[in-house]
Amino acid sequence: MEVPWRQGGRGRGRARPGDGLAARVGTAARPPAPRARDGACLAAAGISSERASGECRLHFPPQSRPGWVLRELSSQKKFDEIKKANQAAAKKLVEDQFSSSSEDDDEDAEVKQGKILAKTFTIYTSQTDGDASELERTRQYMNEAFQSGAMTCLICIASVKRNQAVWSCCGCFCIFHLVCIQKWAKDSLFLVSSPLTDDDFGKKDYPWPCPKCRFEYKRSETPSRYYCYCGKVENPTLDPWLVPHSCGQICEREFKPSCGHKCLLLCHPGPCPPCPKMVTTTCHCKKAKPVPRRCSAKEWSCRLPCGRTLLCGQHICENPCHAGDCQPCPRVSKQRCICGRQTAERLCASPQWQCDQMCGKPLPCGNHTCEKVCHAGPCGDCPRSGKRSCPCEKSKFTLPCTEDVPTCGDSCDKVLECGIHKCSQRCHRGPCEICRQEVEKQCRCGKHTKRMPCHKPYLCETKCTKIRDCQKHQCRRKCCSGNCPPCDQVCGRTLGCRNHKCPSGCHRGSCNPCPETVDVKCNCGKTVIKVPCGRERTIKPPKCKQLCSRPPTCHHPTQEKHYCHFGRCPPCRQSCQKALLCGHLCPVSCHDEALVKQTGLHQSSGPWEQPSEPAFIQTALPCPPCEVPVPVECLGQHEVSPLPCHSANPYSCKRFCGRLLDCQNHTCMKECHQVAKLNSSADGKKAGPECSQCEEECTRSRPSGCPHRCVLPCHPGDCPSCLQMLKIKCHCKLSILYIECL
After folding, report:
1. Where is this region: Disordered (predicted)?
2. In which domain, by residue range, is 219 found?
C-alpha cells in the first residue's frame, strides 16, 4: 500500500521500496504533517495519523498492515529473541566463572584465598593475640570449600558448586545439595512409615538420618530453604570475596559445649573453634587461687592431692586434683559377711558381701531350720505353717508343719501347655502330662488342615510366595504365618561410587553412600588428599609443592625449577646459548623441542571426507639468524648505524652523495653510493669516478658592466675575459665604435 503525502507543497511523494520501516511509517524520517485534505484521504484508507513534536506518525490497523511492515516487525521480534538468548548465555557464563570449587591454579587465586581466610579469622585471632592453633580444623573445612572438587555431595556423588543451594549437617558438618537431602529425607521417611497402617500413619514423628553420620532429624527438621552456614541469611548472594555459601556476617552460633559465649568467626563451614574468651576460674578441688584462663580450657587441675573423704568413710582420696566424683577406695581391709560367720580381706569400696553358707538358724516352729543363704535380719516364720493348698489348689488344709498336704481326689483341671484343654487326671503332684487329644489342626499358613494330636505342631510343605519388605525377594519359608521376616540376603547393588557393592541387608530405596575414602596423590606421591570413593576419577590431583625431579630433555644441563606435575614437563624457557657461526651466542628461548605442524600427510579421497585435525610433531629447530647489533658504515660514509649481525653489510643511507665534483662548484646528487679510493691520501670528500659529472652552465657573477654570461661550462677557477664585441656611440652620437666587452 502506498502512502501519499505532500512534500513542501509542490507535489506528492511516495514511500519507496528501499526505505526503512521508520521512513515508511514516518517515525524516523520526518515529512511535513499531512494537511486536512490528506488526513481525510488517510482516514478513508483506514490509516490513523498522529502529530506530535513536529512529526507525523502513521498507525496501520493490524488487519490492513502491508507486507513490508509485517516483515519488519517479524525481523524485530527475531532480533529481540536472539538478544535475550545472548544475554542469558552471557549471564550463565559469568555465573560459571564462580560456580565451582574449581579455582584457578595460579598464585593469584592462592593469594585471594589467603586474604579471605585472614579476614574470616581476624576477630578470633584478635582475642587470642594472633594464636590460630585452634583454627586448624575450621581452616581445613574452608580450604575444602575453595578447593576444586573437594566438596562432594555424597548422595549424588557430584561436586558442590558455588551457585548451588546446599544444606550442612549439624553432626558431621558434611555438605549436600539441598534437593538431594530433601529427596533423601522423603525416601527415608517413606521407608520407615510404609509398614504402618493408615490409622497409625502420621501419629508418630519418625526421624530421618544424615547419609554420612546417621545423626537423626525430626520430620519437621527437613530442610526446605537454602541458608548460609550460620543460618541468618536465606539464599546468600554469590560473592567471590567470601567463603562459598557464606553470608559474610559474624557467625554468633553457641559454642559446644555451651559456655554462654558465641562464635566470633565470620560465617563459616564446619564446627566452631573453641571459645577464645578469658575467664577467671579455680581448679577442680577449689584449693588453688582463681586464675585467668581461656573459656574453652577453664577446667584445670592444680595437681595437689584431692583430700575428699571416700565412700568407705575411712580413707581420703589421694589422687591429684580431678573433675567429677572420686574413684572407689582402692585399699583392702578385713570385712565380715552379712551373717557375720566369715571374715575376708576385700576392697574397702565394697563392704557388703555374702558367704555361701545357709543360715541354719531354727525357725519359730522348732521343727525346721532357715534354708536362706547368708542374710541380714530375722529369718521369718516357717514356710510350712498356716493353711496350705493341695496340688490342684482346689482344697485347703490346716496341718502341722511336720505333715505333707494330701491330694484331694478331685480332677486336676489345670490348663495344659496347649492352652486349650485341661488335665483329666486326678489331683496329683508334679507337672501335668502332654495333651494327647486328637483335634482338627490348621497349619500355620492356613492353607491346609489335618487331624492329629493336640501337642504336635502342624507345618505344611507349602512355601510362602509373599514378597518381603525389600520388595524384591519372595519369603520362601515353609508354612509361613504371613508375618514374613526381614530379607536376610545382602543387597549387593553397585553403589554410586561404581567401585563397591552395598554390604547392607536387602532393602528398598537408595543405598547409603559409600563409606570408603580414596587417596588422590600427586605425580611424585608426596602430597595426598582423601576424597569420597568414586570422586577419584573426576577430581583434580592436589597441588604439590615439591620440585619436579625429572631430567631435562633439551641440551641444557638442568631444567627450570617447577613444581611436581602430571604429563610432559613445560617447554624449556631458558636461553639457548648455542654458539652461532658469527661467534655470538643464540639468545632466544630453547628450541630443542618445538611443536611443528605437519601438512600434506593425508590426501582426502573426495569432498565427502571430513578434514582431519592437523598433526604436530616435536622437533629441534635451527637457531634463528643472529640479531646482535653490529655498527656498519653506509656506502657513502655519511653515517654509522647498528644492523643485525646476519645482515651487517654496507648499505645506502638514501641521502645525496654530497661529494664535491671536479667543477669545485657543485656536489654529487646521486643517492648514497660506493666511491672507489684511487689514492689512499686523497680527500674523503672529493668525488670519485662513480659520482655524476657536472653538466651545468657557469653561473658565476661577471665583472661590473659586463652583461654577458660565461661561455664555458661550469669550471673551477675564474672565468676568462669577455671577448664579446660591443657597439658604442660617441658623446655626440655621430660616430659608432665596435670594441671588446673587456
Report:
1. 1-37
2. 131-191+205-276
